[in-house]
Amino acid sequence: MVAAGAALADEVGLAKLTMGLLAERLGVRTPSLYKHVGGQEDLTRRIAALALSEAADAVGGAIQGYAGRDALAAAARAFRAFVLEHPGRYAATIGVEPAGPDDPLAVAGRRALDAFTAVLRGYEMKEADMDHALRMLRSLCHGFATLQSANGFQWSADVDESFEWLIAFTDRGLRAL
Questions:
Q1: Tell me: the pLDDT tens digits for 53-92?
Q2: What is the mean pLDDT of the chain?
Q3: How far apart are CA 159 and CA 147, in angstroms?
Q4: How many CA atoms lie within 13 A of 168 on its CB side?
Q5: What is the spatial distance between Cα 36 and Cα 51, in angstroms, rounded to a whole number?
Q6: Which of 43, 59, 72, 163 has the most crowded CB, counting CB atoms within 10 A?
Q7: Phi and psi (nearest 5°) for 137?
Q8: Which candidate, 55, 90, 97, places its Cα nearest to that of 76?
Q9: What is the CA angle 6-14-104, rounded to 5?
């Protein structure tokens, strides 16, 4: 049911996902959904955990065998592709907080963070800079992908070219640390 909710969120947008719409899609009555989830908030949290886990798999798989700029490019491209393919489920990940360290949301979030940490290990930086670098990477990748997903780049420059420019710029900055 969570996978169906995630797919529906991708299709209609997270803001338009309702328990009633999901029940209709699944061909059941809305009260039947409450046997599986505690309500709209619980459904959104479960979609967020699924999305973070899927994003972690995509990024982690993409960086295997790469280091430095190649790992950065692979991670950034995989993350961007995930957000573009799954805008609704990715939207569920924004602003949701884990209930504790064993919360599936926290576990999936750590896996995603670990993948980007592995990318940054390919650059010579102080351990004290790691959190800042992780936030920068998240901001760059999230910002670009969500703007593109929302059709936010409406001028003539090629979007893929701009994304490659962002990767090269980020690599130069990380190497300069």
A1: 999 999 999 999 999 999 999 999 999 999 999 999 999 9
A2: 96
A3: 11
A4: 6
A5: 18
A6: 59
A7: -60, -45
A8: 55
A9: 50
